[in-house]
Amino acid sequence: MKPMSPFSRLSGLSRRSFLASSLAAAAVPHAVRAQVSSEPDVVVIGAGAAGLGAAKALMADGRSVVVLEAKDRIGGRAWTESETFGVPFDHGCSWIQTAKTREFVAAAEEYNFHLQLHDGADEAVFVGDREATDFELERYWDAYERVENAIADAGRKGLDVPASTVVPEMPWSAASQAWMTMGMSVDFDEMSTLDWWSGADSGPRYIVEEGYGTLIARLGADVPVILSSPVSGIAWGGDGVTVTTPSGDIRARTCIVTVSTGVLNAGTIAFDPVLPPAHRQAIADLPMGLLAKVALQFEGTRFSFRTDEWLTYLVPEVLPAPACYFLTWPFNQDLMIGFMGGDFAWEMSAAGTEAAVDFALGEVVAMVGSKARERFVKGTLTQWASDPFTLGAYAALRPGAHGARQILAEPLDDRLFFAGEAAAGAYYATCGGAWWSGERAAREVIAALG
Fold first, then answer.
1. Which residues contact residue 33 at a Cβ distance below 8 angstroms, ignoring those fewer than 6 apart?
2. How far, in Å, CA of 366 to CA of 65, rounded?
3. Is residue 389, in this structure, part of any structural domain at all?
4. Which phi and psi angles does 134 have, rounded to 5°?
5. Where are the alpha helices (DSSP H) in 61-170?
6. Which helix (H) or strand (E) holds 355?
7. Is 4's pLDDT higher than 60?
8. Packing angle between helix 49-60 and helix 431-449, nearest 10 degrees?
9. Could you give the 3-state DSSP secondary structure of residue 196?
10. Cα dist from 266 to 51, 196, 280, whole Å
11. How many separate domains does the chain show?
């Protein structure tokens, strides 16, 4: 039986589909509000989805809040910009899915944003320079189902092992694994079968014409944020907390930390006292994986690909697969959005934008011929691998470390709280999950403050 799309959940399974969140922030201008408190009840570190969600929940309860953001914009890994192509392009998370879907869809409609349900999108599959035959399609769909079933069976049994140890060897397996590597941000030798199984069903999924990042920025427009304020230290050992920034210290009763595990693992923020061993181990067990996007702009042709369609092609059965699969012409724009995951995404990111764009364009040329180069306008590569305030796309649990997400989310002495997609339980790797985790941390803070 064919899945509805490369990202759909097979019947009876409970797992993460694809691309959460991938990532980052906002096209809506944001200014520091006059009501920023010098000694707030709560200081929130990071103005991504988790930080904004936490702040809004605290504000609704009447608590004073200050959010410190290292970047010069809000939104974190939900970031839409229109300068590169003249149309909104989401560098980070692109699909409204899992947690908060109903609320985000309602907000988008209130703001007159244009949404499209993207479940069951069509898929074009190529073998070289031609479309796959019916027989080849059946082999691809069979491989995808068997790979998913193998991981699901391991997870269902409670096995927390690398996915590479349970999947069958068969034709088209690499193509299937490439899609799932993009969804989980790591290759199968680093992918936990139990973490995959524990992920929430993603549907329904919506794409946003104005950009998911634009929506998150609009939702957080009333939050008191101090931009360009990277935090270098958090002292939490006494009465309350003291947070160190380039412009001085901020004192608060409690602190919610929402930065990525990439930043936490890098030691960019010094904790005094140091975090307990269990939290340090949980952070180490949640390193950042990578999903990179390569967007290509064309003019004057659509190469017979349909709007909002997935584009897959046969790749060599060599892993990690050097694959860049595409979403074609979203909202009828002249863009093909390519996706790379895991080790290959890190490799291409290290090689740079020009090399990544050249690879992605070469894959299109291999399918449709030299007219792709003739009609090519320009391309870009997302920069999450080198962004010092993310250092990756989203957290990928190490095989054998199940429970680390829950440990990271545990409060410390009713003063230090953690939120973000890494600590979002079954909603990991999604923007909605990050927002949900921020609200969860806010509820814990409110209970602690009394």
1. 222, 223, 224, 225
2. 53
3. no
4. -60, -40
5. 101-110, 134-156
6. helix 353-368
7. no
8. 40
9. helix
10. 20, 25, 12
11. 1
Q: Of 11-20, 83-92, 268-277, which range is least confident? A: 11-20
Helix (H, G, I), strand (E, B) or coil at 271: strand
Q: Distances in Å between the alpha carbon of 289 and those of 17, 402, 426?
A: 16, 16, 17
Cβ-based neighbours of 55, under 8 Å, separated by 6 or more: 42, 44, 65, 67, 220, 223, 224, 438, 442
In a domain, 364, yes or no: no
Q: Give, in order, the Cα–Cα distances in Å from 391 to each of 50, 191, 205, 434.
A: 17, 18, 26, 17
Q: How many residues does the chain have?
A: 450
Cβ neighbors of 13 (< 8 A, separation 6 or more) are 148, 149, 152, 197
345 located within any domain: no
pLDDT for 160-172, tens place per residue? Answer: 999 999 999 999 9
What is each CA distance from 259 to 112, 193, 207, 220, in whole angstroms? 31, 25, 25, 17
Q: How far apart are CA 419 and CA 424, in angstroms?
A: 7
Report how far residue 191's alpha carbon sits from residue 151's, in angstroms, rounded to the nearest whole number: 10
Measured between alpha carbons, how far is 46 from 159 in angstroms, rounded to an integer? 34
pLDDT > 70 in the chain, percent: 92
**Is 243:249 a contact under the CB 8 Å cutoff?**
yes
Look at residues 442, 332, 437, 341 and name the one whose alpha carbon lies nearest to residue 382: 341
The answer to whether the Cα torsion of 411, 415, 420, 422 is positive or negative is negative
Other beta carbons within 10 Å of 273: 10
The range of the structural domain enclosing residue 13 comes to 1-289+401-450
CATH number, domain containing residue 415? 3.50.50.60
Distance from C-alpha of 117 to C-alpha of 242, rounded to nearest angstrom: 45
Name beta bridge partners: 394: 289
Q: pLDDT by residue (tens digit) across 314-346?
A: 999 988 889 999 999 999 999 999 999 999 999
In a domain, residue 169? The reply is yes
What is the DSSP pairing of strand 65-68 with strand 225-226? parallel
Nearest to 76 by CA among 101, 55, 97: 55
Q: What is the tens place of the pLDDT at every residue in 391-413?
A: 999 999 999 999 999 999 999 99
